[in-house]
């Protein structure tokens, strides 16, 4: 089978490519140049798509004895991931750019080019497993990336390979060292790859500018302060609110609602973050079709968040999820990923959608 191995320059994608070669596939390595400043160097574990990363990927390809290319997807990445990220925050949402990158770049733009060139599959270093076309959690629960892959369709999954999902991360590093790959001890990338400084608010502020609004008390409507833009807030945020103090009884304030149209940010007690229902649009069912009847499942709303039991049903392009117990801090723009628990084979990803609305568990 002809396999295109997406090589980021990190240890995971290096071992994924090595395993594809060892399995007897005809493998070609490709590094995606996603930065519009390709000469930029990494700073420890921050940043990606740098000159250093491309060089590391090339050296791994040389050790493996496979062809290697660099494909420039910077313009597409800016439009589909960075601009989407900025627009989402400007709309008062909380997006996940890694999820959008998988959806729009690695398994759309990259995969489409790969198939046009005659490749049968795309292999990546993501921590997840595929079994009979089903997407499941990785063996290493701490590194599991099935959440950010849940946007992939059944067709995309049928032509994807995740070779490292069956091995814990320490084992991947050990294997890389045994294979003589120089990236064996390379630090993992953290934070948002296109914000190497780690200062998300400064990044957003430079692109969105000042959009003044007000901070009000969610219960009384009292005007508590002003702000320079809703992009500076996320649902559940407690610190950095720019307010003189807590509630009158000493309880902390949290961001409970964001209205980008009016520029209004509501703050209130933690209990006001509790939601009883989640509605997500842009539904993707990994089997290729929606369940015909409501299904008992578990929902995850953050990349490294916990699971909550729900009853989920398809409603056209939407998924409606009724929670068994209130869930706190759910924000528009986040992905809601549904899992079916399976202790033996790894939780099965049922489907996903982008959260567009919630219903509070608190009755005013």
Unreliable stretches covering 5 or more consecutive residues = none
Broad shape: globular
H/E series, N to C? EHEHEHHEEEHHEHHEEEEEEEEEE
Q: Rounded to an integer, what's the Rg over CA atoms?
A: 22 Å
DSSP helical segment count:
8
**Secondary structure: helix percent:** 25-40%
Mean pLDDT reading: 92
User: How much of the sequence is in beta strands?
Assistant: 25-35%
CATH class of the largest domain: Alpha Beta
CATH topology of the largest domain, what is it called? Rossmann fold
Q: Largest beta sheet: what is the strand line-up?
A: 12-15-14-13-16-17
> How far from one another are the termini?
60 Å
- Largest pleated sheet: 6 strands, antiparallel, barrel
Q: How many DSSP-defined strands?
A: 17
User: What's the CATH architecture name of the largest domain?
Assistant: 3-Layer(aba) Sandwich
CATH evolutionary superfamily of the largest domain: HUPs
Number of domains: 3
Structural class: alpha/beta
InterPro entries: MnmA-like, MnmA-like_C, MnmA-like_central, MnmA-like_central_sf, Rossmann-like_a/b/a_fold
Catalytic activity: S-sulfanyl-L-cysteinyl-[protein] + uridine(34) in tRNA + AH2 + ATP = 2-thiouridine(34) in tRNA + L-cysteinyl-[protein] + A + AMP + diphosphate + H(+)
EC number: 2.8.1.13
Organism: Tsukamurella soli
Task: Walk me through this protein's architecture.
25% of the residues lie in helices and 30% in strands. It is α/β, with parallel strands linked by helices and 364 residues long. The protein has 3 domains: 2-185, HUPs (Rossmann fold); 207-268, SH3 type barrels (Roll); 273-360, Translation factors (Elongation Factor Tu (Ef-tu), domain 3). It starts with a strand and ends with a strand. The mean pLDDT is 92. The active site is at residues 101, 193. Its EC number is 2.8.1.13. Catalyzes the 2-thiolation of uridine at the wobble position (U34) of tRNA, leading to the formation of s(2)U34. It is found in: Cytoplasm.
């Amino acid at each position: 089978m002809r396999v295109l191995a997406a090589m980021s320059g990190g240890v995971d994608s290096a071992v994924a490519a090595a395993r594809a070669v060892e399995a007897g596939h005809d493998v070609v390595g490709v590094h995606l140049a996603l930065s519009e400043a390709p000469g930029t160097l990494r700073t420890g574990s921050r940043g990606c798509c740098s000159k250093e990363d491309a060089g590391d990927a090339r050296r791994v390809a040389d050790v493996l004895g496979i062809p290697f290319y660099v494909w420039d997807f910077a313009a597409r990445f800016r439009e589909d991931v960075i601009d989407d990220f900025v627009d989402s925050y400007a709309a008062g949402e909380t997006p996940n750019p890694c999820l959008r990158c998988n959806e729009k770049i690695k398994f759309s733009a990259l995969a489409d080019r790969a198939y046009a060139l005659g490749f049968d599959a795309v292999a990546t270093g993501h921590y997840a497993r595929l079994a009979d076309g089903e997407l499941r959690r990785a063996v290493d629960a701490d590194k599991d990336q099935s959440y950010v892959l849940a946007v992939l369709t059944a067709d995309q999954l049928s032509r994807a390979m995740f070779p490292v999902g069956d091995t814990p991360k320490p084992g991947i590093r050990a294997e890389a060292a045994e294979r003589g790959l120089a990236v064996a001890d390379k630090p993992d990338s953290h934070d948002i790859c296109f914000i190497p400084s780690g200062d998300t608010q400064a990044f957003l502020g430079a692109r969105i500018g000042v959009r003044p609004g007000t901070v009000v008390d969610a219960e009384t409507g009292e005007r508590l302060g002003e702000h320079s833009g809703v992009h500076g807030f996320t649902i559940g945020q407690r610190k950095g609110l720019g307010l003189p103090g807590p509630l009158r009884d000493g309880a902390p304030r949290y961001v409970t609602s964001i209205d980008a149209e009016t520029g209004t940010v509501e703050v209130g007690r933690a209990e006001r973050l509790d939601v009883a229902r989640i509605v997500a649009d842009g539904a993707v069912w990994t089997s290729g079709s929606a369940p015909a009847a409501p299904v008992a499942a578990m929902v995850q709303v953050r990349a490294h968040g916990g699971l909550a039991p729900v009853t989920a049903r398809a409603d056209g392009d939407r998924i409606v999820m009724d929670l068994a117990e209130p869930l706190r801090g759910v924000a528009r723009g986040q992905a809601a990923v549904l899992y079916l628990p399976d202790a033996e084979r790894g939780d099965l990803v049922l489907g996903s959608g982008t959260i567009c609305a919630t219903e509070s568990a608190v009755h005013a």
